[in-house]
Amino acid sequence: MSITEANSLLTAPGQMFETERTVVGGVEMTVWKNAPASLRVVLDMSMVHAPRDFLVYEDQRFTFEEHYRIVAALAHRLVDLGIQHGDRVAIASRNLPQWSMAFWSSVAVGAVSVPINAWWTTEELIYGLDDSGAAIVFVDEERLERIRPQLDGLAELSTVVVISEDPSRPTRMGNPHPRVSIVDFATFLGAVDPAGTLPEAVIAPDDDATMFYTSGTTGRPKGAVGTHRNAVTNLMGIFFGGQRAALRFGGGNVDGEGNSIPNAILLSVPFFHATGCLAVLIGNVASGGKLVMQHHFDPGKALAVIEAERITSFGGVPTIAMQILDHPDFDKYDTSSVLSVAYGGAPAPPDLVRRIKQAFPAGQPSNGYGLTETSAGVCGNSGPDYVAKPTSCGPPVPVCEVAIVPEDFEGDEPTDDLPRGPEVLGELWIKGPMVIKGYWKRPEATAQAFTKGWLHSGDVARIDEDGFVYIVDRAKDMIIRGGENVYSVIVESVIFDHPDVADCAVVGLPHPTMGEEVAAVVVLRPGRVIEAEELTRHVALHLAKYEVPTRFFFRSSPLPRNPQGKVLKRELRTSLVELIEKSA
């Protein structure tokens, strides 16, 4: 069955994934007709899975019912504190069970949850809290110590709730603050009614629900304001992708007798990222999946967790999958439960598909594409489609419109006369109910990035004859070498194909005559040795001369990445320039 046939069947009138045209924010678009009205409705859905394990972190384990009752109690505490519809409630913490509880209690009362990057410095954390105007923030002990010296400058912040990673000891709170209340999570929560329900709240689909800060690779991070409709659109897209794959390819999360197997996810992406929250957390609250968290990712410990918790899915970014596959003790663990290895956010070597299929015979590799501004998912590629087209992120979901727009296009929405075809490159524009309404307090940036419902993604892409999207590069990552455009992701994919390469990144370095030269930073697989000349020959076999890197740099340590798994190319480029200058 083709994708077009499957889409038509699943979105037909009367089906779960039926679509309809409606107006959202003054823009006509296609939406899921049967999507939940709000995230509060999704939370209520979780009680269908009441006795199942939901959150696991070391010695802490919570069922769906325990999670729901705690969220209900916490929601009442927020209301008692004076949190009202539209108020911002921030979370600045590593992945912990209480992160989920803080998130769901906030959105369930109509407040806006503001997940803040836990790896930010003190200055950055204070910026996020100040810019969002958060009235309350949930933090872990490490983040408390980072923000404590600057609490005086946060005029709108009234309460800091501190989460301990180890409930067996008292929370490390330090000295009280003269104005801001600092209270530990357990005290703030108080008694939990075993039959507790949520406080009353009226929430509309297009009310604000989340504010994720973009990675801020240029300038200050911007708060991307998402609605309940944005979040549940992504949820429906996840379910749709699973149903379409099962319809076309069979299989799915079932055992040998056809019984459903609940998801068990090894969480390797942070909740404060759109993927971790909107895709993984919300998706598993609705579907009854178990989320298993680690203090930090370690491939050896991850293998032990896969065996002990019967993990069905892991991934995040390609590096996670490669580190697990490359671990010397891989064969010592039972990984037969793994049914899916999903990743996105960074280019993946095509050979990774083959390696995953070989290592996990029952598993299916998958890849996807999305942005903070699209509430996570736009496209997905899995199963035989991914095997056939491993460099594509797949077709967009049915409620999403995409277009390839030339760099010099001056219109505010794509027109019928734009060039089309599988080889046409341009900026990817995206429209649909998953696209956020804009940036918090940034009208100019909003007007520049969003026009008539279309998001200008900044990604260079092409769309093939089957509607599959290929991300060629971030426009700002394009290298201009002697007047020729070099797309780093293309060069990286060829380098990745070399069997000795574990990871790589391609950046442009200043050149006195060519403008920029192409440089590659390479991390080799354990025990491998290779010379730059061999990689040069390897790349030259597949790419034009101007695309072949003129410099190779080898690292024994991992490439610098942000919590979303994307290589920090600006940081990498700066360190290379400094290295070159010192050696000159």
Task: Calculate Rg over CA atoms.
Answer: 24 Å
**Number of distinct helices:** 17
Cα distance, first to last residue? 60 Å
* Global outline: globular
Q: What percentage of the residues does DSSP assign to strands (E)?
A: 25-35%
Q: Please outline the major beta sheet.
A: 5 strands, parallel
User: Based on DSSP secondary structure assignment, what is the total number of beta strands?
Assistant: 28
Word description of this protein:
The chain has 584 residues and is α/β, with parallel strands linked by helices. Among the domains are: 65-172 and 180-225, 3-Layer(aba) Sandwich (Rossmann fold); 478-583, ANL, C-terminal domain (GMP Synthetase, Chain A, domain 3, 2-Layer Sandwich), CATH 3.30.300. The protein is 30% helix and 26% strand. It is built from 17 helices and 28 strands. The chain has a five-stranded parallel beta sheet with strand order 6-5-7-8-9, sandwiched between helices. Strands 18, 19, 21, 22 and 23 form a five-stranded antiparallel beta sheet that branches. It has a four-stranded mixed beta sheet with strand order 4-3-13-12, sandwiched between helices. Strand 12 (264-267), helix 9 (274-287) and strand 13 (290-293) form a beta-alpha-beta unit. Helix 8 packs across helix 9 (274-287). It starts with a helix and ends with a helix. The model has no long low-confidence stretch (mean pLDDT 91).
